[in-house]
TrEMBL record:
<feature type="binding site">
    <location>
        <begin position="27"/>
        <end position="34"/>
    </location>
    <ligand>
        <name>ATP</name>
    </ligand>
</feature>
<keyword id="KW-0067">ATP-binding</keyword>
<keyword id="KW-0566">Pantothenate biosynthesis</keyword>
<feature type="binding site">
    <location>
        <position position="154"/>
    </location>
    <ligand>
        <name>(R)-pantoate</name>
    </ligand>
</feature>
<dbReference type="GO" id="GO:0004592">
    <property type="term" value="F:pantoate-beta-alanine ligase activity"/>
</dbReference>
<feature type="binding site">
    <location>
        <position position="61"/>
    </location>
    <ligand>
        <name>beta-alanine</name>
    </ligand>
</feature>
<feature type="binding site">
    <location>
        <begin position="185"/>
        <end position="188"/>
    </location>
    <ligand>
        <name>ATP</name>
    </ligand>
</feature>
<keyword id="KW-0547">Nucleotide-binding</keyword>
<feature type="binding site">
    <location>
        <position position="61"/>
    </location>
    <ligand>
        <name>(R)-pantoate</name>
    </ligand>
</feature>
<dbReference type="Pfam" id="PF02569">
    <property type="entry name" value="Pantoate_ligase"/>
</dbReference>
<comment type="subunit">
    <text>Homodimer.</text>
</comment>
<comment type="similarity">
    <text>Belongs to the pantothenate synthetase family.</text>
</comment>
<feature type="active site" description="Proton donor">
    <location>
        <position position="34"/>
    </location>
</feature>
<protein>
    <recommendedName>
        <fullName>Pantothenate synthetase</fullName>
        <ecNumber>6.3.2.1</ecNumber>
    </recommendedName>
</protein>
<keyword id="KW-0963">Cytoplasm</keyword>
<dbReference type="InterPro" id="IPR003721">
    <property type="entry name" value="Pantoate_ligase"/>
</dbReference>
<keyword id="KW-0436">Ligase</keyword>
Length: 333
């Protein structure tokens, strides 16, 4: 198939529509993560539907001193990737098409959720994100829009905006795509030197350490509920055979069987990895590490049950990276 390059909403609206339209919003510099979004969009709308990829570097979401000017712009390569992944069209508008008359005076506020984590580190960032997403949803008129779960807070805010403001569009989150070494795919990875990349691996390694701690605790507590609160319980727990589980067996055996793992322990396991990386050359400079409720991105406390997100942001050299992993606390896990 040949993917059409469209520069105006008028050209996009002139296209005949038969099936459903899916939109994948990007800032360009496409990689396998974006390609996965496009392929997923094709699966959702089918052969008769239409997949549109937007490419627009949105100035509203970059703060002072951030990388707007050096953000990679690779439209020719983006077209090839979009075509190979199955896109029907790439909508790559110029700034005056999205913001006629200059930056908009009326913008969408991300509210309290937009002031936490990424929002606290980058004031106004999510206001700019939601404003451009709203604009692009109006300009592209999709039935469904797909976003990567790597930007978990962004995805949560878009879902909230669509629900709160009655946008008639389905929002689909697609799992994070990682490279073989675990690093989450990002357009900013290309900024990293070889030694910086080695340091950057600490982000995913920290998340995996937190996930493993969580899994070990859940396994321990599931076993604890199955045996009496006696010395036999400690022996049964130790029989699990995993070093972390065995180390905790006596403490868990003496305690009443809990229903969930302890969020603080999950964060602590991840933090150890980040602290080690802070001593590397170049060092990892952590912005935040938090275990949050994805409905509002407030930190969860002991006794929490349900879906959670372990999120991290850090800087290596001049490059800032984010990553996260979903975790489930309680019986559902």
């Amino acid at each position: 198939m040949t993917t059409a390059l469209l520069r105006t909403a008028e050209a996009l609206h002139a296209r005949a529509r038969v099936g459903r339209r899916a939109v994948v919003m990007t800032m360009g510099a496409l990689h396998e993560g974006h390609a996965t979004l496009i392929r997923t969009a094709r699966e959702i709308v089918g052969r008769d539907g239409e997949v549109v990829v937007t490419v627009f570097v949105n100035p509203l979401q970059f703060g002072a001193g951030e990388d707007l000017d050096r953000y990679p712009r690779t439209l020719d390569a983006d077209l090839k990737i979009a075509e190979q992944a199955g896109a029907d069209a790439v909508f790559a508008p110029f700034a005056d098409e999205v913001y006629p008359g200059g930056e908009p005076q009326v913008r969408i506020s991300a509210g309290p959720m937009g002031e936490r984590l990424e929002g606290a580190s980058r004031p106004g960032h999510f206001d700019g994100v939601l404003t451009v997403v709203a604009k692009l949803l109006h300009l592209t008129r999709p039935d469904v829009a797909l976003y990567g779960q790597k930007d978990a807070q962004q995805l949560a805010l878009i879902r909230r905006m669509v629900r709160d403001l009655n946008f008639g569009v389905e929002i689909v989150g697609v799992p994070t795509i990682r490279e073989e070494d675990g690093l989450a795919l990002s357009s900013r990875n290309r900024y990293l030197s070889a030694v910086e990349r080695r340091t950057a691996l600490a982000l995913s390694q920290a998340l995996f350490a937190g996930r493993d701690r969580h899994a070990a605790q859940e396994a321990l507590r599931a076993r604890a509920r199955e045996v009496p609160a006696t010395r036999a319980r400690a022996e049964a727990l130790s029989a699990i055979g995993e070093s972390r589980a065995a180390a905790d067996a006596h403490a868990v055996a003496k305690a009443a069987p809990a229903t969930t793992s302890v969020p603080a322990d999950v964060v602590a396991a991840a933090r150890i990895v980040l602290e080690d990386a802070a001593r590397l050359k170049p060092p990892l400079e952590v912005d935040y590490l938090a275990l949050v409720d994805p409905s509002d991105f407030t930190e969860i406390s002991d006794g929490f049950t349900g879906e959670a997100v372990l999120a991290v942001a850090a800087r290596v050299g001049t490059t800032r990276l984010i990553d996260n992993l979903p975790l489930t606390f309680g019986a559902a896990s």
